[in-house]
Amino acid sequence: MPPCSGLDDIVSAVRAAHDAAIPLRLRGAGSKDFYGGMLAGELLDLSGCRGIVAYEPTELYLTARCATPLAEIEAILAEKDQMLAFEPPLFGGATVGGCVAAGLSGPRRQQAGAVRDFVLGVKLVDGCGQVLNFGGQVMKNVAGYDVSRLLAGSMGTLGVIAEVTLKVLPRPPLETTLVFACAEAEAIGRLNDWGGRPLPISASFWHADRLFLRLSGARAAVEAARRQLGGEAAMNPELLWDSVREQSHPAFAGSLLWRLAVPSAAPCPGLRELRAIEWGGAQRWYDGEAEAVRDAAVRLGGHAVLYRAPESMRCREGAFAPLAPALLALHRRLKRAFDPKGILNPGRLYAEF
Amino acid sequence: MLKSDNSQCCVDPANLERQLRRFLPQHCLLVGEEDLRPYECDGLTAYRELPLAVCLPETEAQVIDILRTCHRLGVPVVARGAGTGLSGGAMPHAQGIVLSLARFNRILRIDRLARLAVVQPGVRNLAVSEAAAPFGLYYAPDPSSQIACTLGGNVAENSGGVHCLKYGLTVHNVLRIRVVSIEGEVFEIGSEAPDAPGYDLLALMIGSEGMLGVVTEVTVRLIPKPELAQVVMASFADVARAGDAVAAIIAAGIIPAGLEMMDKAATAAVEPFVKAGYDLAAEAILLCESDGTPEEVAEEIARVTGVLSAAGASEIRVSQSEAERLRFWAGRKAAFPAVGRITPDYYCMDGTIPRKRLAEMLSAIAVMEKKYGLRCANVFHAGDGNLHPLIMYDASQPGNWQRAEAFGAEILELSVALGGSITGEHGVGIEKINQMCVQYATPEIEAFHRIKAAFDERGLLNPGKAVPSLHRCAEYGRMHVHRGDLKFPELERF
User: Fold this and answer.
1) Looking at residue B26, what DSSP letter applies?
2) Looking at CA atoms only, how far is residue B442 from chain A in angstroms?
3) pLDDT of B482 above 50
4) Architecture of the domain defined by B343-417
5) Nearest Cα to B175, choosing from B115, B236, B85, B249?
6) Hey, of B296, B422, B449, which one would you mutate to test binding to chain A, going by the most A CBs within 10 A of its CB?
7) Which of B110, B111, B159, B199 has the most A C-beta neighbours within 10 Å, making it the best mutation to test the interface with A?
8) Residue range A156-175: mean pLDDT, rounded
9) Where are the domains of chain A?
């Protein structure tokens, strides 16, 4: 397939693939090729579909074509002192379409919400090559099913996100980072205790018995919270949070990495291979054996994602936690509703579709 | 006996009643006309229909049995919470049953540490915050009907409220739901942990207006109650300036806890009723709430006041006590009943527009008031562009309702033309079903039908609501050529 440089190219590529029943592998910058199920199908190179279509700072939205680099979006937002509040990883050249499709949020998620919370509208090319517009540019819109948010984390299996509109937010006037010395259980306890109080905590990161806490907000609120919480001021906080967001921090190193999403107050699962804790206790990173990690996640009321692994292990284990049979059947029906021939990123979310 | 007034229908009411009685005790099934009458409409009273029966199950097992029975017999099911909806979403189907979740009214668990509440769908919105209050927590979405509306209904409509600019809609505050499908299968959607695996079905279910499944349990996120809240009230000599002031607040990097506007007609209706102290000489007033720590609030109020002065506010007042704050809000929250006192009937619209188009919309509404010969008061969730024009009419006057309906339709269609939406938080229901044909084109509407079929192949859950048939859109398009384009040109015209 030739690279796509715009909506018309996407439509004709998908139509051709649909007619010939050729599976397509959707790719923006390829920064998340490591993530999710196996890569299969002919490459649909979307990297030419870029550019910011609209940005209205006082309406709090930005619309961009799918392969617009997040870095470009962040730069234009920064000029108006605004930001993507879910703080997605940039992974070098990550694009906005891939960001929504993968549904990965960064450190600020515990305060601001996830990718899906900021998706306002999409222009989608479904598996038949039809252009569909869902949602829009306004904050509140309950006309029709909320397909735009459904696409967050769908791994490109429901359609090619050609254009997306995201809600943007003002940057907090002040940020400061505190550090505390504490072990795993104590960190989880503290994070949940603080979470129940009206404190401007925008990120948390625990690794090797040190707990980092970022406070963001109005100057007065940050300063008051800092006095209340104690701790010490962290060195080079921007570098730290960047390395957490980009997973370049040593805590994330290695060829095997599990991400456990659990209720924030879930106790320590007793696995030795804990690497890091984020999101007020709700996101925990491990390496370790698949069975033990998956069992621990279920025991704690959450789920495990095989975030990074050697190819053989990804093949064997599947990246995402298995779905209950009734839910899997529903997923298949939904997949068919958007992509009846199953040509879009087959197996990237679940091997079954 | 169930009434049987449609011999053409495939539903045999006597058989349906017999089947339901097998597992529903006497007090859980209503079939007499006088018992059914209270269920004939929701908060949108202009649309009414009597169902064949009303089921009031008390257990999830009964819900499953009801849905299985209806699925087997091909009987439409309309789920209902408190019936406070404003779009006719809970209006019964003449050949179907109403499934009331009113008896699912227990708060199952409040987890202080994890900051969440597990509740049944018939629990009232405000009851959640009341139960969480001893822990210093609350549930953020606060629709004006919060003393009566239920969480199940909030999930169905993706309800908002005056604080959703800062704290989000229902979709941002629900973690997990338990759902029974029309086939009687139980799904757990979402989780207490973030980012549940698979598609974000929670996003799809929330706001789906009872078309995809019946919710039997809801887990919501609770957040710490701010230490302090204060409101700034500003008067403006014209609405355009007030609109610009809203944009200026956002541009200054402030996301207030609430940002509301009322026009002169609205304050005039409200003031004698509530005595909130509104400036009746102003063409528009803004209410801007700040919450947080006392230091934070003081800082934000100072910034907001500065922005509003610079934007040309003619008068600015800051609430000096909690009692005064509540009084400022009381007028806004009582706007609907207050308008109800000065007119026999009113019709509330729910369009959303980009904030910058506000003045344009309000002047267009002023022209429409003359065109339709009806008055309109405007209250507005200004911060997120959600407009609630209240069209005043008298249902006892022939033709009055039809004019109100046409007036409303024109407002909604202008909302779409201005780059907005026909509904911000009330839902499409039966009321805005025609305007869906204006909001969306054929391919999207077909996609909605395919989604519906993935959950409910036979189309038994709340049929005829939320998503119009293409046939209906063709009919509407024929009556109503939109922006010079004929919608659905490929369809045969009648």
Assistant:
1) G
2) 9
3) no
4) 2-Layer Sandwich (3.30)
5) B115
6) B296
7) B199
8) 97
9) 7-170+332-338, 174-312
Q: If you search the block for the tokens 């949070």, which residue do you land on?
A: A241
Q: Which helix (H) or strand (E) holds B447?
A: helix B442-455
Q: Are strands A119-125 and A131-135 parallel, antiparallel or unpaired?
A: antiparallel
Task: Give the model confidence (pLDDT) of A20-63 as tens digits.
Answer: 999 999 999 999 999 999 899 999 999 999 999 999 999 999 99
Q: Which CATH topology does B13-100 take?
A: 3.30.43
In this structure, what are the phi and psi dihedrals at residue A94, rounded to the nearest 5 degrees?
-45, 140
- CA separation for the pair B354, B124 (Å, rounded): 31
Of A143, A221, A300, the CB nearest to B421: A143
Integer Cα distance of A11 and A294 in angstroms: 39
Instruction: Give B-chain residues touching A323 at CB under 8 angstroms.
Output: 197-198
Of B165, B444, B466, the CB nearest to A133: B444
- What is the assigned CATH class of domain B107-224? alpha beta
Q: Which residues contact A263 (CB under 8 A, 6 or more apart)?
A: A282, A300, A301, A302, B114, B116, B192, B193
pLDDT score of B1 more than 60: no
Query: How many residues are there in chain A?
Result: 353
In chain B, residues under CATH classification 3.30.43.10 are 13-100
| Residue from A188, A45, A219, A334 nearest B292 by CA | A219
State the span(s) of chain B assigned CATH 3.30.465.10: 107-224
- Lowest mean pLDDT: which of A117-131, A159-173, A267-281? A267-281
* pLDDT(B476) > 90: no
DSSP state of B105: -
- CA-CA-CA-CA torsion sign (A187, A190, A192, A195): negative
CATH fit for domain B228-336, picks 3.40.50.10860, 3.30.470.30, 1.20.1270.10, 3.30.70.3450: 3.30.70.3450
Q: How far apart are the first and last CA of chain A?
A: 22
Here the tokens at position B139 are 């549930």
CA distance A151 to A134: 11
Is B382 within 8 Å of B246 (Cβ atoms)? Answer: yes
Domain A7-170+332-338 fold: 3.30.465
Quote ipTM for the complex.
Answer: 0.97
Distance between CA atoms of B65 and B28, rounded to whole angstroms? 13
pLDDT value at residue B492: 40
Angle at B157 between CA B156 and CA B158, to 5 degrees: 100
Residue B236 bridge partners (DSSP): B284
C-alpha span between B131 and A261 (Å, rounded): 27
In chain B, where does the domain assigned CATH 3.30.70.2740 lie?
343-417
- How far apart CA A122 and CA A66 sit, in angstroms, is 10
Q: What's the maximum distance between 2 C-alpha atoms anywhere in chain B?
A: 70
